[in-house]
Amino acid sequence: MRPDPAVLLDVSRLISRLGGGPATGIDRVEAEWLAHLQDRPHLLLCRVRRGQLLLPPQAGAAILRWLSGALDDLPPPDLLDRLRGRRALSARAEAALRRMALARAGRQGRGLGPAAQARLGAAAVYVNVGHANLQAGLLGNLRPLPQAVLVHDTIPLDHPEFTRAGQAGKFRARLAAALEQAEVILTVSQATRADVLRWRERLGLPDRAPVLAAPIGTRLAAPDPAGLPADLDLSHPFFVTLGTIEPRKNHALLLDTWQILERRPDPPQLFIIGRRGWENRAVFARLDRLPSGGAVRELPDLDDGAVAALIGRSHGLLMPSRAEGFGLPLTEAAGRGIPVLASPLPAAREMLGDYATWLSPDAPADWAQAVARLAEAPPLRRPALPVPDWESHFGLFYAGLSRSLRDQTVTAM
């Protein structure tokens, strides 16, 4: 059996997100890949303000320390960054990484492909799992390395109304670059695979690369209530929803649901876990008007242990999303045996099957009825649902890459 190839992993997203609040699902995937590579041959690629850096393995160990909150070894930002007011953690991280760099290049990464291959060997591969730094020019300059890209979803194309202004065009360019140049495209679910194939055909892009599903793993953090607010009432029935407060997550439906529930004499609580995102002013205004001590409460900055403690003691996870490529909160709850109420999205149904209670994202009365039914009894616990693990994801990734490279070699002969 051929060994897995050495990897040039792109960590641009992790560095850009450093200090930006709780990790998103995509952040977690890139961090899992970085941790996975710590005892394997690898180098890192990172886009910084003035170009691209080729980084040694010790840079990855440093990034993992920074992600854990150990920031003592971070220097101040470079002089030019300080003069321009860039003093965030990401600027400090870039300063540290520039000092470690094995090679530097402009934004298009000219010369970095041969430089990486010279250090990693002929079997090395460039891997991008974070949707960041996908540019046609860069991918071309990373040759002769073959390339593997993980696509999380096509939401910016399917639902541009749920993204920041201009993101649909940027995502289209990134997806086109990946489909035109990568040797293999992996997706986080079969549902996302179907979306990628649909957009490949719609955009008239070549079908040179196989598109394979490699569901991402779910890591169940150990519960640790130490990070919970001291005044949080856990003795009264409560439900949780987890994720950035953005339009596609459909927090408006939950606020409507609780308006119905609060007509009852003793309504359950709703804990909204996640930071505020974008393009969601109406929901933010409703949250700002919530009364102190009311049934609905925002919890924006909880660590993983505190989130796990809340999910584990809750009456259920609520996820009325209008679009998802995977939906990590679903498997985080189901993997603990916690009831789940969710919209019947293709990716959600793929992951949970008949485990969840499926409800329309436009029917707050139905959600109120289902929530009230669960709240009237002690917390229900079901047999934990087997959820995808990371070793399976990595195995599917390497197997798909090996098969694609072998097939392309045979075709070229």
Describe the structure.
This protein is of the alpha/beta class. The chain has two domains: 7-218 and 390-412; 225-375, Rossmann fold, CATH 3.40.50.2000. The chain is 41% helix and 14% strand. The protein is built from 17 helices and 14 strands. The strands form three sheets. The protein has an eight-stranded mixed sheet with strand order 4-3-2-1-5-6-7-8, with helices on both faces. Strands 9-10-11 form a three-stranded parallel sheet, with helices on one face. A three-stranded parallel sheet has the order 12-13-14, sandwiched between helices. α11 (251-261) packs across α16. It starts with 6 loop residues before the first strand and ends with a helix. The model has no long low-confidence stretch (mean pLDDT 93).
Give a brief description:
By secondary structure, the chain is of the alpha/beta class. The chain has 17 helices and 14 strands. The protein has helices at 12-17, 25-36, 57-67, 79-83, 89-100, 112-120, 136-141, 155-158, 167-181, 190-202, 251-261, 281-288, 304-313, 328-334, 346-352, 364-375, 390-412; strands spanning 7-10, 42-48, 51-55, 103-105, 125-128, 147-151, 184-187, 211-213, 238-242, 269-273, 296-299, 317-319, 340-342, 357-358.
Protein topology:
Blueprint: E1 7-10, H1 12-17, H2 25-36, E2 42-48, E3 51-55, H3 57-67, H4 79-83, H5 89-100, E4 103-105, H6 112-120, E5 125-128, H7 136-141, E6 147-151, H8 155-158, H9 167-181, E7 184-187, H10 190-202, E8 211-213, E9 238-242, H11 251-261, E10 269-273, H12 281-288, E11 296-299, H13 304-313, E12 317-319, H14 328-334, E13 340-342, H15 346-352, E14 357-358, H16 364-375, H17 390-412
Parallel strand pairs: 1-2, 1-5, 5-6, 6-7, 7-8, 9-10, 10-11, 12-13, 13-14
Antiparallel strand pairs: 2-3, 3-4
Helix pairs in contact: 11-16
